[in-house]
């Protein structure tokens, strides 16, 4: 018997990609409920060749749901995810709402799958930029150790949603009129200033937090430490939005602390890593680029080279589809890991399960 | 009495900008000769309200020339710049041909103007990415010292010439067809593979050199050490081409080695620096961006913040117009400094000058 799955934020860029990937991967779902805000309710979406009507995400929708994917913004997750958990669903939340909560596992299955054990019904999916970086760093850490990371990002607009893609399309159509186009979304929809992203580079993603860093930069710093289980790791980040539709790129500097670490060894570790593809041949001009990572599941790595001055330190270029491994795919991989490990809530290793209603009573 | 000036590469993106800036700055030129390859000879250019015919750059053209600006590629400079010098011209070369020659000064006037003294007729203008970075780093170095630099660049296509701007225009017009557009110029015109730059990020600028670094990256590493006069400085670079028309951006990490260095002190040093504008107010979303640096002379700095882990280390976002301070403007500022310092070749501090023909004889 398969699972009842809910997608909250079903009309958004990530929600649509989750549905597409569930279908493509033959995820064991008997039923999928498409949920969104009242504004988007009534929209029709295609799934397994059939039309489905998107319904409003209200607490009662989660009765009988086994696994709920949330990607409708932090506010929706804060309000509804605990309701869904209370009703027996295991929630995989793609917002930043619970990521740094010490009781919520923050998981990239290839890196810290063991953290799923003993969860309380809520698992957080990390920030897109963080996921692809830790996928590349974990094989290095396991082999040589890891002491320091400095990353500068080159991020796509689809990370800011479907509207941002549309706006880039309008702005990009007229290079000669660059800078004069309307801008109403980036860098932050609710902020007071908006800048065109076409033919530009905006060094702000999300709002500014403390010490001059943006929240996106703090996410990369703090989530990396949590996922790798290294609170003492030295990490810093600069996050920049670019006129790229989909595919985040990262210029990553890392110190292993092991002077014996060499390029061949790092390359071998990356080549052996699950979900990582090495695309690195300067002589043939082969390296990852966002335009060619779009639509692909893997994290692509290239431009690996020794730092000229610091033994055991390297530079790496890391590219991945921010809607796939950065969001939808990783969320589904978390669900698949939960299923394989018998860790979906209310489900024993024997496959039996029960759901609870809002009052904690079994509903089946 | 003013100077006779030659512009070699007068039809290119940098050559045209040099002419425009000579005019705008009332450069003391009695006569300007517009020179280019045989292919471009005959083209007409506007200068001081008059049409000028571009002539072929051959050695004889430099007889009687006081100052020659070269920006027609390294091959042309290697062949013709020594000829121009032999004929008495002071050459300011905007290519990489002579930059690392130990006998050739490599100059950013705000940083190492003193290196102009005792030149032998040839002065090299640094790489665009290097110029804007050292403008930002020198005030820091003077105040606190400098031990280490790690830079990731976000570079505009105009650094690859006027044709690259046109190609981006075609590619950018159709976001939905991204990746399917013709690409015949970037990353390197003569290389075997070309990639679309629109809606992409290409982690290759110039050819690959040794150790997996590109020549652009080695330029940033080696030129920075030479200009700052710090052969022991630890520098590394990752250079990336973006769908931006004009304006290079850089994410710069630097260690001063002085644990007492603080943001306020760095900011004060940048604010006091000639040619540097600080645009840095997170609360008001103010930071430099290439779209707004285009056409402006200054090097813009912002997003200054302490590294979270290393005392005396900081992150800075540096943006400048790569055709202006990165090329044409810096070349003209070198010429202006030579004039002010009485260091134009064959010219004494009393303003008298003489030119030599190809045989070393005075021609006037």
TrEMBL record, chains A, B:
Record-listed NADP(+) binding positions: 11-14, 39-40, 158-159, 322
Chain positions recorded as substrate binding sites: 155, 241
Principal EC category: oxidoreductase
Molecular function terms from GO: aspartate-semialdehyde dehydrogenase activity; NAD binding; NADP binding; protein dimerization activity
Gene Ontology BP term (one): threonine biosynthetic process
Protein's pathway: Amino-acid biosynthesis; L-methionine biosynthesis via de novo pathway; L-homoserine from L-aspartate: step 2/3; Amino-acid biosynthesis; L-lysine biosynthesis via DAP pathway; (S)-tetrahydrodipicolinate from L-aspartate: step 2/4; Amino-acid biosynthesis; L-threonine biosynthesis; L-threonine from L-aspartate: step 2/5
UniProt keywords, alphabetically: Amino-acid biosynthesis, Diaminopimelate biosynthesis, Lysine biosynthesis, Methionine biosynthesis, NADP, Oxidoreductase, Threonine biosynthesis
E.C. number(s) listed in UniProt: 1.2.1.11
UniProt-annotated catalytic positions: 128 (acyl-thioester intermediate), 248 (proton acceptor)
Cited CDD domains: ASADH_C_bac_euk_like, VcASADH2_like_N
Catalytically driven reaction(s): L-aspartate 4-semialdehyde + phosphate + NADP(+) = 4-phospho-L-aspartate + NADPH + H(+)
Binding site for phosphate: 99
SUPFAM superfamilies: Glyceraldehyde-3-phosphate dehydrogenase-like, C-terminal domain, NAD(P)-binding Rossmann-fold domains
Domain Semialdehyde dehydrogenase NAD-binding per the UniProt entry, residue ranges: 4-119
Subunit record text: Homodimer.
Summary of the function given for this chain in its UniProt record: Catalyzes the NADPH-dependent formation of L-aspartate-semialdehyde (L-ASA) by the reductive dephosphorylation of L-aspartyl-4-phosphate.
Family: Belongs to the aspartate-semialdehyde dehydrogenase family.
Protein name stated in the entry: Aspartate-semialdehyde dehydrogenase
The species this protein was found in: Edaphobacillus lindanitolerans
Gene: asd
């Amino acid at each position: 018997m398969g699972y009842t799955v809910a997608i909250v934020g079903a009309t958004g860029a990530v929600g649509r990609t989750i549905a597409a990937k569930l279908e493509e991967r033959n995820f064991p779902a008997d039923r999928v409920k498409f949920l969104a805000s009242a504004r988007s309710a009534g929209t029709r979406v295609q799934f397994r060749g059939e039309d489905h009507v998107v319904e409003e995400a209200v607490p009662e929708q989660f009765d009988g749901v086994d696994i709920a994917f949330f990607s409708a913004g932090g506010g929706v997750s804060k309000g509804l995810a605990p309701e869904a958990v209370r009703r027996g669903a295991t929630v995989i939340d793609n917002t930043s709402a619970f990521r740094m909560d010490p009781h919520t596992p923050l998981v990239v299955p290839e890196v810290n799958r063991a953290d799923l054990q003993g969860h309380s019904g809520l698992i957080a999916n990390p920030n897109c930029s963080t996921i692809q970086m830790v996928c590349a760093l974990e094989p290095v850490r396991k082999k040589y150790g890891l002491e320091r990371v400095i990353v500068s990002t080159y991020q796509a607009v689809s990370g800011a949603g479907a509207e941002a893609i549309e706006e880039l399309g309008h702005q990009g159509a007229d290079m000669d009129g660059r800078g004069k186009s309307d801008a109403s979304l980036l860098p932050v929809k609710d902020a007071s200033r908006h800048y065109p992203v076409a033919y530009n580079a905006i060094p702000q993603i999300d709002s500014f937090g403390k010490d001059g860093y943006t929240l996106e930069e703090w996410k990369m710093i703090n989530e990396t430490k949590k996922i790798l289980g290294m609170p003492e790791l030295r990490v810093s980040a600069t996050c920049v939005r670019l006129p790229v539709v989909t595919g985040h790129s990262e210029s990553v500097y890392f110190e292993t602390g092991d002077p014996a670490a060499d390029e061949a060894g790092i390359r071998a570790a990356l080549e052996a890593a699950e979900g990582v593809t090495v695309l690195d041949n300067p002589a043939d001009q082969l390296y990852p680029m966002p335009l060619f990572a779009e639509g692909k599941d893997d994290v692509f790595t290239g431009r690996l080279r020794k730092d000229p001055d610091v033994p055991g330190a390297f530079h790496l270029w890391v590219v991945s589809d921010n809607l796939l491994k950065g969001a939808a795919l990783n969320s589904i991989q978390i669900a698949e890991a939960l299923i394989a490990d018998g860790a979906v809530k209310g489900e024993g290793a024997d496959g039996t399960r029960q759901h609870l209603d809002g009052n904690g009573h079994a509903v089946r």
